[in-house]
Amino acid sequence: MTENSMIKLNVYSEMINEELKKFAAEKPTLRENICEAMDYSLTAGGKRLRPILMLEFCRMCGGNASGLMKTACSIELIHTFSLIHDDLPCMDDDDYRRGKPSCHKAYGEATALLAGDALNTLAFEAIADAATEGVISAQTAIMLVSVLAKAVGVNGMIGGQIIDLGAEGREISIEELDLLQAHKTGALIEAACVMGVILAGDFEKIPAAADYAQALGRAFQIVDDILDVTGSFEELGKPIGSDAEQHKSTYVTALGIEGAQKEADRLTEQALLILEQFDDNEFLRDLTEYLLHRRS
Questions:
Q1: Sign of dihedral through CA atoms 102, 73, 232, 179?
Q2: Rounded to the nearest 5°, which phi and psi values hold at 100?
Q3: What pTM was computed for the model?
């Protein structure tokens, strides 16, 4: 990644982190515990990839991203909610996330469950507030809510999760694995890119943004699968080998490490080719290649 792109990435991350701190800053009486749990997971770190994608697609499509940080963070609220729920004993049963005890280990299962639910609803509140405050139009807010809701539901992230649960303990085809990951991982990344285009009002670019996101999302998941085998706790901030322990089919089990890496390379090249349809894309090109070679 070039020095300029790395600086921009760090600036984006810092701005997003500062905005995320505001969402659970107030601790109402008798509800302090759940707000602390929300804040605990929101501020645990992370790449902040999804809000960055939203802001960048808005900018590349000619929009003014100034004042849109709260709206962009709506998708990080959803992502954080999904991580809290993924870690629960009834799901992936992971004790660590981003190098810290998972939310349910720190605050208990019931509070973690409710914290995830609260972050889910807070995302849509953030979009509605942006319209109420005149930052975006009501029509734009409706479109954003529609895209985000579909990306979360049975035709998106939650649908991917239920396919994932149903696939535990059995070998699945590459076609089913692609379907699983297109929903579980790809849907929210696609929503981020499409929402950025909507914020800019350049609706003709929506198909290209969606195609880029699906290629990036699948490459991102493949790298995750590889790192679950080759990475370390120190790098990933969570136990490695959890996919194998839960007998999950992954791109590594389906293609082998070398085959999975080749597929990630191919999908990254595909994503970069699609990016050529967008002006001023240097940062996102750098970020796309950076994600392919990441170690965490």
A1: positive
A2: -125, 160
A3: 0.95
Instruction: Evaluate if residue 151 carries a pLDDT over 70.
Output: yes
CA–CA distance, 73 with 85 (Å, rounded to integer) = 19
pLDDT of 135 > 90? The answer is yes
User: pLDDT tens across 30-60, in order?
Assistant: 999 999 999 999 999 999 999 999 999 999 9
Cα–Cα distance measured from residue 98 to residue 47, given in angstroms and rounded to the nearest whole number: 10
Q: Say what the alpha-carbon torsion angle 128, 146, 115, 161 is, to the nearest 10 degrees.
A: -170
Cβ(222)–Cβ(214) below 8 Å: no
CB-based contact 229:241 (threshold 8 Å) = yes
Q: Could you tell me if 111 and 252 are in contact, meaning their C-beta atoms sit under 8 angstroms apart?
A: no
- For the chain, strand residue ranges (E) read 96-97, 100-101
The share of the chain scoring above pLDDT 70, in percent, equals: 96
Residue whose C-alpha is closest to residue 195's, from 123, 291, 279, 266: 123
**Calpha distance 190→78 (Å, rounded):** 13
